[in-house]
Amino acid sequence: MYTMTCTLLATLLASTPAIAQDDGTDAPEFLLADLGVRIDLPSGWKMTKWADWEFKGETTAGDIFLVAWATPIQSPVTDASMWGQVYLDKAIEMGGGDPEVSESSITKIAGRDVALVDVSLSFAEGKAKGNLYGGTFAAPGQMFHFALVTSDRRARAAKKARGELLDRMEITQPPPPLEFAPTLSIDGISTTLPEGWRVPLKQEMAAFNKRVSKLEIQDTSHCFSAFKPKGLDTPDAMITCQVGLHLGVVDSYSFSGIETVIQSKILGGKVDPAKQVDLDDRVGFVYDLTKGGLSAAVVPYDQGVSRTWVVGEAGDAALVEAAEAMVSGSTFSGQHPAGVGDQISYYVTYRPFSPIVLFPGLCCLAVVGIAGLGAGTLVMRRSGKDKYAALAEDD
């Protein structure tokens, strides 16, 4: 049974042709350049596949197997359970059956936080029992994972080897620190990102650009970007840009009228009406577009409008919450410009009963009324005089 299990594991792990092989006597170090990690195999191990982005190896006895790889987006190692699915998927990929996380914990090894995940599994259609011992830690813009797989018979040795390998691993490119909820500024827009959001790292920009590609933003030079990592799930993305658009007077009175203009000129068509978000000195517009995996926010200010898109999964209410939090956490360099014509149009259209409108209107009516009264009196006087009086005077 033991021999059959090891043979099966070796077949599964050797399914990809090896680039090179080593007999394990020298136990050299192997640099995974794309991940910034150097794997230093102990004596008694050999490499079976080595590339800049992945690694495979095994003991010279062929009874414990090692595989290392990475997933995109760097995340804090704070909850070991969130990485369990990585190893369940890897166990299935390697041909294991009925994988189940048996234990997970966070530890500090060689000065870095590591998530340790243990998985029980089976081989040979459930006739042979095995184990997977995984370790996850942060690499620049990615998460590094490695797993040791063996039979129950060699479980203790594999678990011990995991700790030894982690001690011997070297990070040649330390992962950059992650700053969550920073304050970002561009073109008079200053925003404190919502909780859980951060600026994407250089290594993550390809993933970010893919996430926001459907927005078709041609020029991002007047924009700032943010990411919300979600473990193994695709992260949410946010992009805020300055847009040159004149809307006139914008406040709670004109909100509904201006909102239809925003729909047409910024959102490109009719959508559900925006929610009004009141700030200290202005109002913001937040749109629920979660049916399409989006939300949007627009805030007028002195350089046009601030427009924010939040991209995520369809139906996720957190997208709207993020857009609203972004508006609430923002300040702006000045008020949206409004000329004399904008002011007149605003009061006549949205505040016709304002004293500013009523008083001049009443004054005009009074002037017209007085003029009309004078003209009427004159007419009445003329109409009341005897039309033959002049002839009588001549006589």
Describe this structure in words.
- By secondary structure, the chain is an alpha+beta fold.
- The protein folds into 3 domains: about 1-170, 3-Layer(aba) Sandwich (Protein Transport Mog1p, Chain A); about 185-340, Protein Transport Mog1p, Chain A, CATH 3.40.1000; about 360-395.
- Helices cover about 30% and strands about 35% of the residues.
- It is built from 9 helices and 19 strands.
- It is elongated and about 90 Å long.
- Mean pLDDT is about 85; it is low at about 1-10, about 10-25 and about 360-395.
Total domain units: 3
CATH top level class name of the largest domain? Alpha Beta
Low-pLDDT sequence parts:
1-8, 10-25, 361-395
Q: How would you write the strand order of the largest sheet? A: 3-4-5-9-8-7-6
Secondary-structure-based class equals alpha+beta
Can you name the CATH architecture of the largest domain? 3-Layer(aba) Sandwich
Task: Name the helicity range.
Answer: 25-40%
What does the largest sheet look like? 7 strands, antiparallel
Shape from CA axes? elongated
What's the average pLDDT? 85
N-to-C SSE series?
HEEEEEHEEEEHEEEHEEHEEEEHEHHH
Number of DSSP-assigned strands = 19
